[in-house]
Task: structure prediction
Amino acid sequence: MDTDWKLGLTGRNGRGKTTLFRLLMHEFEYSGKISADVDFEYFPYPVEHTDWLTSDIAGEIAPNASDWEFSKEFFLLGLDEDVFYRQFCTLSKGEQTKVLLAALFLKENSFLLIDEPTNHLDTQAREKLAAYLSAKKGFILISHDRYILDSCVNHILAINKTGIEIVRGNFSDWQRNKNLRDEFEIRENKKLKGEIRRLEQSARRSGIWSYKTEKSKFNQKNSGLKIDRGFVGHKSAKMMKRAKTIEARQKAWQRKKQNCFTILKVRSRFRLCRLHILMMCLRNLRMFPFFTEKKKFSAI
Result:
């Protein structure tokens, strides 16, 4: 990855977005090697001494930054200058977020790993943050705010079910391409199911022909002559071989195609009903016990 990229990290919950950040921060053990010529910095940044002045905390994060640089960053983020001289614990959560982001971006040779920066921001503050990040470079951003991802990233790093992909563009560009791929997969999946069904029918038909042919060589005559059992057996074996060949081809086809449609995940349908309807169904269910082969269990 280019350290000048502005990456948006996306993926379903539980796919490992935050875990990836922790790996880059060397907080988890891993196999392989991570090579980087920048220092990864994680946001939210842990502040140990919240009773310190904001200027002291910001100076500890970015010791080489001057006061005028902090003033410039604060102005871009919509912060008042007096925030710099107040205790950090007296700031609102939104103000703390902005101060920490400004300090981390001022730190030399840093590459930010930003995890959900809009949790404590209102609409106006989110717009300010989006404009601020769009002018920056060198970060990976996790956010459920689509506006942020569309406004300030130029690449998308997507964690899919089968692996990781990096595409150029914002979140809407990636989503549009993903929808096209999903539609293609659905069409191909229908074609695959039809081909598998055709092969199953062909294998079943050849197996039935083989069985009938094999059966016909016993106790039957053709125009008063005995049937050549060797010929009939050979013909039957040939048909059975054809059935087995079709079955093997079907399995090979399934193995070849089974990994082609793993990115798309279809959500199962569910229904919501009123609570009193559900309770009535449960009461009625008590009237009908369930049976197994040896034991009897009640429904509730």
Summary: The chain is about 50% helix and 15% strand. Confidence is low (pLDDT under 50) at residues 266-278, 284-300. The two ends are 56 Å apart (CA to CA).
